Amino acid sequence: MKQSGQKKMLPALVLGALAALVLGACGKGGEGQGAGGQMPPAEVGVVTLQPASVEMDVRLPGRTVPYAIAEIRPQVGGIVLKRAFTEGSEVKAGQVLYEIDPLTFRNAQDSARAALARSEASLATARLKAERYKELVAIKAVSQQDYDDAEAALKQAEAGVAADRAALSTAQVNLGYANVKSPISGRIGKSSVTQGALVTASQATALTTVQQLDPVYVDVTQSVNELAALRRDLASGALKRASKDHARVKLQLPDGTVYPVEGKLAFTDVTVDSGTGSVSLRAVFPNPKGELLPGMFVQAVLETGVREGSILVPQRGVSRTQKGEATVMVALPEGKFEQRVVKTERAIGPNWLVSEGVKAGDQIIVEGLQRLRPGTVIKPVPFAETSAPAAAGR
After folding, report:
1. Taking a C-beta distance cutoff of 8 angstroms, is the pair 280, 218 a contact?
2. Which structural domain range is residue 388 located in?
3. 346, containing H or E segment
4. CATH number at residue 236
5. In Å, how far from its chain's centre is CA 192?
6. In this structure, what DSSP letter does residue 259 have?
7. Is 11 part of any domain?
8. Which helix (DSSP H) or strand (DSSP E) does residue 380 occupy?
């Protein structure tokens, strides 16, 4: 009987021991929460906003355009005897590019020179006769009519000399045109004719093209609304000019690299394109190494001015709602925080330029955002001090 009683008491003892273990575990958990059973404040990294001077710029797509273009056409007709350049090479102004058979033009020059010599001889005779008749008419040795005829013949001879001299000059010019020269310095393209080809004066097809590429133009377009807003900001003092003389322009190449030489804005069109509502801008860039080729698509970065007192918010601290609104978490006194809607204008490096919603002195939470829940008590710490531990925790 005693043994059966002992067997009945064993389950009760086991249950009591288990209950003690459970209560002990609960007691340890309560000690970890701290006094009153509350969680400790969640550390979050914050950045205190400070006003800054920001260099404003505008990025506009554009295309490179040669500084000068010359389409080479012959001014006289004939057979091409020689092409005197290498396609794709650099040529100088006045350099001979093609030689057209000059024989016809040389003969025309010789003929004009002979005609001029004949006219000059006739002029000398007419002048002497007019001088003699002038003396004779004074003593009534010849009639007035004879003297008048001699004077008329002199004037005709003078006119003949002038005409033949002009003809000789024309023949000399045409002979010079037999050597087709480049009017500008630059890089020459491919030739459309070869040796032996027949060309005509002022033909429709150009023999070749020379393009001056140092410096080079970059043509871009800007919305008229953006241009008007820029002028208002400059007039009101919200923006200060980056340069007194010309707006500085930088260039981003198609592969994303920045062109090493700065340019300047040289021209703004005065007419608005009715189809696009934009105006044309033209910048000039030095191109000593020939890196910029005609027709390249580039990004022109125009420095429009400096905005004082700007507020920059780190991009990592800005999120978007389902409506697309930009929001930030702002740390408040006594361990509280709140969400604010802000107006972002543009990205500047790793920051957003914010015009509404926050002000200088606000503390923006940029690290530990995943810990924030309604009612969570936070402990703001400077972001630079907590960036490494916070990153490891994530």
Report:
1. no
2. 42-53+309-393
3. strand 337-348
4. 2.40.30.170
5. 32
6. P
7. no
8. strand 378-382
Q: Is 81 exposed, middle or buried (0-12, 13-18, 19+ CB in 10 A)?
A: middle
* Cα–Cα distance measured from residue 305 to residue 265, given in angstroms and rounded to the nearest whole number: 13
Cα 312 to Cα 159, 226, 305, 351, distances in angstroms = 83, 21, 17, 6
Residue for token pair 């003297």:
147
Domain-terminating residue out of 254, 278, 307: 307
Spatial contact of 192 and 204, defined as CB atoms under 8 Å apart: no
Q: Which residue has tokens 């970059």?
A: 218
Rounded to an integer, the average pLDDT of 248-263 is: 89
Same domain, 357 and 271: no
Residues 200 and 273 in one domain: no
Reported as a pLDDT band with limits 50, 70 and 90, residue 240 is low
What are the tokens at 54? Answer: 């920001």
Under the banding of pLDDT at 50, 70 and 90, the label for residue 386 is: very low
**Residue 210, token pair as written in the block:** 């020379």
The pairing of strands 378-382 and 42-48 is parallel
Written as one string, the DSSP assignment of 275-317 is TTTEEEEEEEE--TT--S-TT-EEEEEEEEEEEEEEEEEEGGG
- The residues near 273 (Cβ < 8 Å, ≥ 6 apart) are 221, 279, 280
300 in the same domain as 224:
yes
pLDDT tens digits, one per residue of 103-136: 999 999 999 999 999 999 999 999 999 999 999 9
Q: Which amino acid is at 311?
A: I
> How many domains would you assign to the chain?
4
Regarding whether 260 and 374 lie in a shared domain, the answer is no
Q: What's the whole-number mean pLDDT along residues 25-35? A: 43
Give 91: exposed, middle or buried? Use CB within 10 Å, 0-12, 13-18, 19+: buried
Asked whether residue 139 carries a pLDDT value surpassing 60, the answer given is yes
